[in-house]
Amino acid sequence: MSNFESLATRAVEATPPALSKAVRGLSDKTIAWVFIAPTIILLLAINIFPLIWTIYLSFTNYAANRPNRPITNVGLKWYRDILGSPEVWAAMQATAHFVFWTILFQTLIGFGLAYLIDRKFRGHAFWTTIILIPMMLSPAVVGNFWKFLYQPQIGLFNYAVSFFTGIDPSSFEMLGSVKLAPWAIVIVDTWMWTPYVMLICLAGLRSIPGYIYEAAEVDRASKWRQFWSITLPMALPFIMLAVLFRGIENFKMFDMVVLLTGGGPGSTTELASITLKRQAFEAYRTGYSSAFAIILFVAVFGLANIYVRTLNRVKQR
Amino acid sequence: MKNFVTGLITFRREPWETLAVVIIALGVLMLLQPISMTLYTYSFITTLIGTVMFIIVTKFPE
Amino acid sequence: MSITLSTAHSVVEPSSLAKRSAGFIVILYALITMAPLFWIFATGWKTPPDSISYPPKIVFGPSLEGYCNLFTTRTRQTADYINALGPPQGTCDEVTRRREMVIAGASNYAPRFVNSLIIAFGSTFLAVTLGVFSAYAFSRFKIPLADDLLFFILSTRMMPPIAVAIPIYLMYREIGLSDTKLGMILLYTAVNVSLAVWLLKGFIDEIPKEYEEAAMIDGYTRLHAFFKVVLPQAATGIAATAIFCLIFAWNEFAFAVLLTSGEAQTAPPFIPTIIGEGGMDWPAVGAGTTLFLIPILVFTILLRKHLLRGITFGAVRK
To answer: Going from the N-terminus, what domains does chain C have, and what CATH number goes with each?
Structure first.
């Protein structure tokens, strides 16, 4: 390879600029745009055009199941309805409960695991790969089979709980009880996505150069102090990255929860996306649901901006 | 803090970006909080302002 | 000072007790986290009565009934009718007749699985092809507003699927792409291309520019150099990116359930609809889930070195 490089350098030095330009054929600028254009066109057609259409629909009374009804402009009516509706606010709080607790558990367990894996015990690479498996699975299929595990009479989960605590396994229903269902979805999401947080935290821990710890040892700083003044601050951008992404993903959570609880019992686990799906594809209130979609989209887009900002910071490390 | 204010006055990117991030985060918190209906009602416009502001201020000089 | 440092146990090398206890906790976690997965795999090999027994059966006689039920539809018949039939043809026939039923035909699982394959591979191929060209352009050329374009590309992936599905549903209905494989392929391509551009840009950034420059000095055009020098160098990155796109398209549920109903339906919306007599047919669900998840397990192990890159859009590399 070095041979190739030195040849390249020599060749670059030996070629007059005019000649090297002439042999390139198509100009770089043309190639750049030809290479990028298909991607941009596809995204404009499948993402941006629909987005603009949604914005337009959110100001109208359009209903997808009655396409021939004349469309009238309703102004900001849907936005006012949604932002003044206690039901939608309740859905937002169900979402908030889900987002807050999943992030908290995933960060604590994920960081803890990363910290332990960073001790580099024998076989850590193998076990890390095993731990990562849940996050690669299909959320819908995961939701579906956890429904089986949560069955009160026959499920593995209730059996395990009763095995360790002695509580009668048929005395509680994870999915059927108003109190437990919001926690049931938190447990499944934590099971599935803790590996995600762990993997990013592990990268954060490994990005801390060893000499900083060595210097701290020299200064006789305790392990506890080292953790709080070196490990945590230096891993923080990575933790932020994981938290933001999980926050965005869980804010728009749909598939796993829909298959696990379908939003029930009652509407205790009806997250924002599930409400949106009901309005759009069951009630066919297309205008209303378009406005709802825009409200969710703006929140996600705002957070995505912060995410990319964090991403660029981490990249510079 | 002083740097932050000077940065705002002279339209530097860094402090304005921070401000926009805070507004976006505030809007999202207002959307999800269980305390006040009024805060919930104004969450959307807050997030929208924060996001538009973020897009504009990232064009400011470093 | 440096001498004391090298003999003292430094933080970089933890004590053997700390290592062993860390290993113990991590392995314990790994085993607990695998339990649900083993359980669903095991359920696929149980008979329906075994699958719903209490206490849950950890030791059981394996049965093919779950897999048979997954691929067939059955109808109940009287014992006389079944006795009048000839000898059973194959294991599935035998298993079904034991339940006083006969096989009526093939279930929809196989076609749904094939749909999943076609849509996943089709969209992956398109997304990676588009992605590798764009990524090269972003990596090598000065493009005005490159950062904004890249953010725009990434932000399309962040959109809530249900929000996107509303106008896509209307648009596909207008142009006749509802419930077609082509429609799903295009949609998944659009979602995946953002990941492909970001990931591949990271991989191509790592290939020294000098390689193509040298090739161009040797008389290659830019296009030639791209195909003959850059693509082979980026092969690993392209493969990793392709696997990520495959997994996404394979796993996707929200778009699939909202935009397809029959012809183009993929496996994830189908598996939850597997119902036996009197509730879910859990062994069949277990079998369907097993077959659906095994490709992902294989790919996860193949990808393990690139997972971190994949989940951070190529920003974090090690």
So the answer is: 48-107 (no CATH), 110-311 (1.10.3720.10)
